[in-house]
Amino acid sequence: SLPNSPHIRVQCHSENLEARQRRHLHLQQAIRHAAERNELSLVFQPKLTLNSKRVIGAEALLRWEHPELGQISPGVFIPLTEASGDILAIGNWVLENAMSQAVAWRRDGVLDGEFNIAVNVAARQLSRKDFADQVLQRLERYRLPARFISLEVTESGLMSDINHARQQLAKLAEAGIAVAIDDFGTGHSSLAYLKTLPVSTLKIDRAFVMDLEKSPADRRLAEVITQLAHGYNCEVVAEGIEEDAQADLLLGMGCEIGQGFLYSRPLPAEEFVAWCDTWQAERIISVTESLDGP
Ligand code: C2E
Ligand code: MG
Ligand code: MG
Ligand code: MG
């Protein structure tokens, strides 16, 4: 079979597997000190309603600026911290900073009633027996109403121990924290279990959005996910929207929320607020123009 073929082995050597492993080991150690050395930050990507393009929230995404190597992608360093267990400390850092940002934005009037910040949660965090309690305690400490924070968990995070996950999500849901299943359709979740989980949102992965225009199969998939979500009274968020045509197709399927580079890349907090102001102003102008009509 392919993975054992000599060809593949040669390829691995030419990619220098050892050097990569050394690099990963270095990163794994370096990130342990990243928080205390101020190398971590959050960026925020807006989520919008696809029909009226109203900003209804933001996803918080972690950034790590290594002193010598520069920006390291979370796609690389998050799995490393999941393997080492450091994701627990990092995850707490993310929760703390997302909540303190929410407090600041609430104070400044940036957060209105429906706006919330979505925080990504790794499988290993959710598997803690006191995960939900910790989140709720933090909210209390920040005096932040639960609706201002939502969580994004992956299918693997849910499926590793479904009963535990269900308990944790139930506790969060009861307190008013919305939970989304991230990258839906890319992992191994069982549809039979889905109906037993108190989640409020399914996120369509970028992998299915990317080729919407040219792939009927991906269109069908996005459509099925949307119908599935609505069948369980869940919202649908499409991620990775880069083109108007994709947004139009998704809207046509009934997908109500989207995020992607078409609207904005993830931005540092201050730039995010400036982006929102400009976006809102342009929205009002375009609504007024369409009212004036030709
Ligand atoms: P995710 O949660 O599915 O986040 C969406 C990713 O898609 C982000 O990548 C975002 O920058 C990117 N994206 C959004 N719109 C577009 C688009 O239109 N085009 C393209 N090409 N990409 C788009 P990012 O920030 O590199 O994060 C990658 C993954 O790392 C995240 O996927 C998430 O699984 C993980 N991650 C990031 N921050 C955190 C965190 O604080 N905690 C945990 N546990 N995981 C995180
Ligand atoms: Mg996410
Ligand atoms: Mg995602
Ligand atoms: Mg994704």
Distance between the termini: 64 Å
Instruction: Outline the low-pLDDT stretches.
Output: none
Which sequence of SSEs, written as H and E, runs from N to C? HHEEEHHEHHEHHEHEHHEHEH
The secondary structure category is alpha/beta
Percent of residues in β-strands: 15-25%
* Gyration radius, rounded: 20 Å
Helix tally equals 13
Listed once per kind, the bound small molecules are:
ligand C2E, magnesium ion
Shape: globular
Strand order of the largest sheet: 1-2-4-5-6-7-8-9
How many strands?
A: 9
Q: Considering DSSP H and I runs of 4 or more, what fraction of the residues is helical?
A: 40-55%
Secondary structure: elements and pairs:
Elements (H helix, E strand, L loop, with lengths): L5 H9 L2 H14 L9 E10 L5 E12 L3 E3 L1 H11 L2 H21 L8 E6 L1 H4 L4 H11 L7 E6 H5 L2 H14 L2 E7 L6 H4 L6 E4 L1 H4 L6 H16 L3 E4 L5 H10 L3 E2 L10 H24 L2
Parallel strand pairs: 2-4, 4-5, 5-6, 6-7, 7-8, 8-9
Antiparallel strand pairs: 1-2, 1-9, 2-3
Bound molecules: ligand C2E and magnesium ion (3 copies).
